[in-house]
Amino acid sequence: MSIHISDKALQDLEFTTVIQQVAEFSISELGKRKVLETLPFSNKKQLLQELNFVNEYISSFESDNRIPNHGFDNIYEQIKRLSIEDSYIEPESFLKIATVTTSIKELKRYFNKFNSYYPSLFEFSEQITFIQDIIDDIKKIVSNYGEIVDNASPELRKIRRSITGLQGKIGQSFTSALNRAKAAGYLDDIKESIIDNHRVLAVLAMNRKKVSGSLLGSSKSGNIVYIAPQATLAYQRELQNLEYEEKQEVIRILKTLSSFIRPYAPLIESYLMYLTHLDVIGSKAKYAYSINGILPKIKKTKRVYFKNAFHPILYVNNKEEKLEIVPQTIELNDKQQIIVISGPNAGGKSITLKTIGLLQIMLQSGILIPVDERSETTIFDTILTDIGDNQSIENQLSTYSYRLKNMRYFLRNCNENTLFLIDEFGTGSDPELGGALAEIFLEEFYHKKAFGIITTHYSNLKVLANELDNVTNANMQFNERTLEPLYKLFVGQAGSSFTFEVAEKNGIPFSLINKAKKRVETEKIRLDKTISKLQKERNSLRKKSDNLEKQKSKGQQHIDNLKEKEEKIQAKLAGFQELYDKNQKMLSMGRKTNELLNKYLQTNNKKELTTSFNKWVADEKVKYAKKNPLNQKTKSQKKQAKLVEKNLQEIIQKVEKEVLQKVKEVRKVKNEQAIKIAKAKSEYIFKINDRVRLVDGNAVGTIEKIEKNKAFINYGIFTTEASFDKLEFVEKSKK
User: Fold this and answer.
1) Are 703 and 712 in contact (CB under 8 A)?
2) Which residues lie closer than 8 Å to 282 by C-beta, 6 or more apart?
């Protein structure tokens, strides 16, 4: 599906202003430039992909692990130069390439780690191939400060060592010459200076022939001459040769590095394109976050439902000036194909029309929009607009001529996948003739099944809207007493223009208004009065209906909450009952098992244990059979039952053996534990406040004091004494 939205529609709906606001959130110059080039997508698949990218990016704002926000340099020029055979680029340029590549590495690692949170962005990052060698090759040669490292080649290391040694000799020779000249009194008070990056002696002019060296200049007054010592000059010439060799070696190294990186030039360019696109996505997400933008449901079903929609430009401006903005809710569907909005000027008709158009274009450009999350829309192939005074001075066309030319374009391009928006439909010509032509246009759009919104003052269009099945009248609400606009759209009824009422409110003398009324057909005044009266009654009913709806909604919500709580309680009770029955059964079986085991442990009578266990199992089987009676068995079923019984007996015998084995193990463990406890108690050294009891008693007391081998034990109402060998340890002192 190919989508086409004309430049005129973008201009009419002030799309450029939105794009400029989005561009302010870009972190790179390339990203900003790309945002400013944003246009509606021509391919639906790419559009949906972009919307998913932006929606996932904005979700990261609520996460502790936000998407890395990497700035990057425009290195297209460096890539272009690098692509030229036998050329080279500067170390700083290589450093920028390494930085861009590192950003790609970090982003790929991030999206790989959080692929479940950002599936679309992860898939996008997977399309980019990361090559570690680019970073490694550059880091071996270029330092973090953009300089060629000494170890870039053996030859460079050798040259730089020689330069360092020579610089030391230059320093020593100059210091030696300085000291000699100073001792001889040949120097001025400043002693030395710098000329052409070389240290020179500041010699008094009268002593210039006494100091050997090369004269490099003098002071303005001529009192001082600047001489480079002879020994230093020799070293300087040698240094210049080494510096030239160093420069040539650096160029050779850079050319070699360029040849290594050159095959990756197209890949590095793709890195730059990826980062630019990610910056565009981030800019759209940050802008959407600032205007509370969301991604509404996009369906194949032809429907536009924008709930609590804000005009984004008005939203930003009013937010800065701390002014209130009223949201609009509007719907277009097969049963409400075209909406005709009427009513007085300055009531918000044009803003409502522009809001719907601009939001739809933003969405089709990959930008989230400020609407309620329950909103939904579809993707239109074409969006047509005719808004404002389109008088064309260049083409010497009047407003009406221009609009007729525009209508011709509409009629050619309008179809069932079109959204059209027309402001002040039919104006610019004789009201009756122009109105009649406007009716024909409206019928054509209607039969082509296009979706649209128009604003008008023409009564004949209001009547036509009432007659056509899927065309609906609407008006912008006004305060009927003050005639102040409420900027709220009401769908279902045409609006009065309040022509005479508005004129009276604006100070036009009543006598003039009365004369005007007499010149208008009586029926038209009556129609306008009727519409005005109906609008007032509807506003009153609307308020009452809203209040009743709110009360009904609250009541229903309360009932739903009570039902939900009751269902939860019933479910919990059923669960508790089932759990209780299971627990009772398990307790009963546990008690019986414990009883059989205890009896066996006391008597060690294996036969009695087996008999009792078999009898218990048989009793349980009888009880189960009573609760779950079986149908009369056939011979084959009886035979099968015997086999089952035989298997059951084998299982019982096996369980008996396992139980006996377990009993032996339990006895062994208990005996070992008893020995350990007895040993620990016998070796324990009693302390004050320990809890103890007499070996042949049950009462527990606390040791109050210890004297020699005796302990004084407090039982609360009396105290007694006993030797340690007659005491049994119960609990350690807590103090």
Assistant:
1) yes
2) 25, 26, 27, 31, 57, 67, 69
Bridge partners of 720?
Answer: 713
User: Got the DSSP string for 118-142?
Assistant: -HHHHHHHHTSPP-HHHHHHHHHHB
The model carries a pTM of 0.66
Both tokens of residue 374? 């329950």
Tell the CATH topology of 684-731.
Answer: SH3 type barrels. (2.30.30)
The answer for 478, left when phi > 0, alpha when psi is -120 to 50, beta otherwise, is beta
Q: Which residue has the higher pLDDT, 255 or 183?
A: 255
Tokens standing for residue 554: 């609250």
Q: Is the confidence at residue 180, as pLDDT, over 90?
A: no
Q: Which helix (H) or strand (E) holds 382?
A: strand 382-386
Q: How far apart are CA 2 and CA 45, in angstroms?
A: 10
CATH code for the structural domain at 26-150+260-292: 1.10.1420.10
CATH number for the domain formed by residue range(s) 304-503: 3.40.50.300
Q: What is the pLDDT of residues 404-441, one digit of tens each?
A: 788 888 888 899 999 999 988 766 655 666 678 888 88
Instruction: Please give the Cα distance from 547 to 527 (Å, whole number).
Output: 30
Which residues have a Cβ under 8 Å from the Cβ of 218 and sit 6 or more positions away?
Answer: 205, 224, 225, 226
Stretch 279-296: mean pLDDT? 96
Inform me whether the pLDDT recorded for 526 exceeds 60: no
* 46 pLDDT above the threshold of 80: yes
Report the distance separating Cα 365 and Cα 39, nearest Å: 6
Check if the beta carbon of residue 93 is closer than 8 Å to that of residue 48. no
The mean pLDDT value for 505-530 works out to: 68
